[in-house]
Amino acid sequence: MVEKKRVAVIGGGFSGIAAAKTFAERGHEVHGFERGPAFGGVWELSRSYPDCQTQSPKDLYHFTDQTYGENVPEWPKAPDVNAYLHSYAEKHGVARLFRLNTSVETMERRADGRAGWTLTLQEDGCTKREDFDFVSVATGQFSQKHVATHPGEQEFAAQGGEVIHSSDYTDPSTIKGKRVVVLGGSKSALDIAVNVANSGAKSVTLVYRKNVWRLPYFVGGVNVKHLLYMRAQEEQFNGWLPSPIGRVLRMILKPLIWANFRGLEAALTFQLGLKKHKMVPDEPIEDIVSCSIGVATPGFFEALDKGTIKAVQGSIERYEEGAAVLSNGGTVPCDVAVMATGWKQGLSFLPAEAQHKLVDSDGLYRLYRFAVNPSLPDVGFIGFNSSFCSVLSAELVSHWLVRYADGQLEHQPSADEMNASIDVMQEWRRKDRPAAQVYGGLCIAPFHFRHFDELLKDIGATKRKRANPLVELFVRPSTAAYGEFLASAPQYHAG
Ligand SMILES: Cc1cc2nc3c(=O)[nH]c(=O)nc-3n(C[C@H](O)[C@H](O)[C@H](O)COP(=O)(O)OP(=O)(O)OC[C@H]3O[C@@H](n4cnc5c(N)ncnc54)[C@H](O)[C@@H]3O)c2cc1C
Ligand SMILES: NC(=O)c1ccc[n+]([C@@H]2O[C@H](COP(=O)([O-])OP(=O)(O)OC[C@H]3O[C@@H](n4cnc5c(N)ncnc54)[C@H](OP(=O)(O)O)[C@@H]3O)[C@@H](O)[C@H]2O)c1
């Protein structure tokens, strides 16, 4: 008999919703906490910049048991995603499990000698403490702003200049007629530069440090989803724990794999005009594919051609009145500087001792299956396996975690096994695949199938692949099929 637990879920984005639903369906008493005024996490409307749309196609960015409406575009806009998330939370009875405007401030081991944690909650100006048998942390990787600061910023602001983080750029009317500098070279930076240029800014300058590969939604007319999410493609990258057969195959096929990626680079360089924009990256594309590789924002390279966006390689050195002085010595007129400089990782509510166990000194998280740390009992992490289809990865790991918490995995790993596996993964990230270090090492892309196979095997799913081996090798994952795979595992109910 599995004991019914009182479970806390911290965070009301996709991962928190997945965790709350999965634990509740197994019979646990779930209490969700979201510090914001509404569900949605990165898709909450007050945090989404205009024109923001997914990079994942819609058939790979939903839960296994609910699709988007027919009218939603192939790459849903932020309001579509937000509406989906809300309808899902209502329909599946998850919304009522959450307390909004409730922030988890601290988390410490229970003092009553029982397993679990005591959370300190800040709710409507009141501080409360509540005990839980198990905690699911679903706080996301992109919810603590990293705002780069530069000398002269205070004077710049006092003289009427403005410095904002990318997630605070929500109203295009604020930049009309302004000279805007966007700092950063990743997805938020390009999206915002394009939106600002289309919204009546006087000038837009993108200041970025390094050239990176980006994928357009269509490569040579082919939807990128047909190229990116294949077992056959995935096997060409140096994933963790390659099987002996996989290792030999990669050796034999090395020239073909090399040619495949050079072909892709040539196609991208040609299609996006990277040479003329002096934006050809130095690194081979196969070495850098991870969650940080972004979709090339539609309209960005066209705006460079038209001159409505100017791109300068470098960084901001300091501010002067009405200008940003760059590291290359140049000066760019600037009324508004948008810091598209990303996010900080970290879980400030965890005690320092727990943080030391969880994160190595180089910032890499120590998580078995991207979900648990054997030195931190009664807590698990959802959405720390981010991917190119993060909703599905969050759902799958939620199913893994509830079974782990209930001792219901087909093979319940020992602490030694988990530590050994974590060490192998850390070694792989540090030595074999540095790209896997992005965002604290909490990204499974491009190794979706590998990770999902591991989770399903642990869960005890008897069905883990589609029947047709060719489809399985050359076709993107089917979200609905993963629902069937999960259903093929032994079922149980707590309490
Ligand atoms: C603009 C943008 C677009 C993206 N597009 C894609 C895409 O196309 N495909 C893809 O796979 N991924 C995409 N991602 C990655 C995205 O992060 C995931 O897809 C997914 O939305 C993450 O959900 P989450 O619930 O894990 O985290 P979040 O959405 O960040 O939600 C975490 C929640 O936890 C809450 N929280 C944090 N700390 C506390 C606390 N102490 N107490 C209470 N609540 C707390 C936050 O307020 C937040 O609501 C995108 C990310 C961004 C920023
Ligand atoms: N439409 C969408 O689907 C969408 C939109 C936005 C974001 N996202 C996703 O959300 C995640 C975060 O993306 P993001 O663009 O917000 O952040 P990010 O990927 O972390 O990128 C941050 C950028 O800021 C630069 N930077 C950081 N500190 C800097 C400094 N001090 N000076 C100059 N440059 C600095 C980084 O450059 P270096 O690389 O040189 O460090 C990098 O280019 C990604 O996974 C992304 O794919 C998706």
UniProtKB/TrEMBL annotation:
Keywords: FAD, Flavoprotein, Monooxygenase, NADP, Oxidoreductase. GO terms for molecular function: flavin adenine dinucleotide binding; N,N-dimethylaniline monooxygenase activity; NADP binding. It holds the Pfam family FMO-like. InterPro entries: FAD/NAD-bd_sf, Flavin_mOase, Flavin_mOase-like, FMO-like. It comes from the Eukaryota. Belongs to the FMO family. This is Monooxygenase domain-containing protein.
